[in-house]
Amino acid sequence: MSPMQTLTAPRAHNTGRRHAPPTPAQAAPAAAQAAPAAQALDAVKVHGKGSTAVRALDSVSVSFDAGRFTAIMGPSGSGKSTLMHCLAGLDRLSGGQVMIGGTDLSTLNDKALTVLRRDRVGFIFQAFNLVPTLSAAENITLPLALAGRKAERAWYDTVISAVGLADRLSHRPSELSGGQAQRVACARALVSRPDIVFADEPTGNLDSRASAEVLGFMRRSVIELSQTIVMVTHDPVAASYADRVVFLADGRVAGEMSDPTAATVLDHMKSLEA
Domain total for the chain? Predict the structure, then answer.
């Protein structure tokens, strides 16, 4: 899907989602939910040096609660992808801190950071990044296999049921539609039971129908599986599936919005671009 295309969400995609009965995780004591799943504290990221230096993040402080679906939006060059990459441990800050749970990523060496990403973080990218010679099932469990671990069977079955691909597990990526391939990528991100999933433009290569399928699954994984998701997107309709939208502009936080709709997100984006 090109940057100019807009998703078409089902009219009732958020019906009842704000008022669903609390899951056990949601009903836990407030003290147990106090620590954010991830946060940035005065985060600074500078690309280059001297007169050519670009300040991609300029003292950004923002937190992301566990069991919530948060979208990050902003004009091109706002720093949204840089923020996500630093939060996920894919890039290091020039200053400040990023935390996954209670772990300060700046204190970890490269090996420890690799282990944290493997064990506690899930990733969904615009490109599906599936291995073409492996079946859907093998792609889903590949990160665990590389770590010398096996999927927890009950959780694996739960994820496969939620993603709705039980009848496609033996198929290779070339035999799947774009939406199915991205749902395989979603299942791969969830099967290790990560603390948090980071999604970078996950519907960028999908048509409207496939996009709605993937976003609907991500929404359900938060409600039904108590997953935590942080998604970078350019599309207001994609953002409307989230509980909250954080806006960036010029490397700084430029507001946030709870219970977003496509219309309210679009209006705020227009004001930032203006």
Answer: 1
Whether 232 is covered by a domain: the verdict is yes
Domain region containing 110: 67-89+106-273
Nearest to 43 by CA among 88, 95, 6: 95
Is 218 inside a domain boundary?
Answer: yes
Alpha-carbon Rg for the chain in angstroms? 18
Please state the pTM of the whole predicted model: 0.82
- Give the type of residue at 166: A
How many CB atoms are closer than 10 A to CB 177? 14
Q: Tell me if 267 is assigned to some domain.
A: yes
- The residue whose two tokens read 């671990």 is 149
CA–CA separation, 192 vs 60, rounded Å? 29
Q: Quick one: pLDDT at residue 34?
A: 57
CA pair distance 210, 179, nearest whole angstrom? 4
Identify residue 126 by its one-letter amino acid code: Q
35 contacts: CB under 8 Å, gap ≥ 6: 66, 101, 102
Mean pLDDT, the chain, integer: 85
69 backbone dihedrals φ, ψ, rounded to 5°: -110, 110
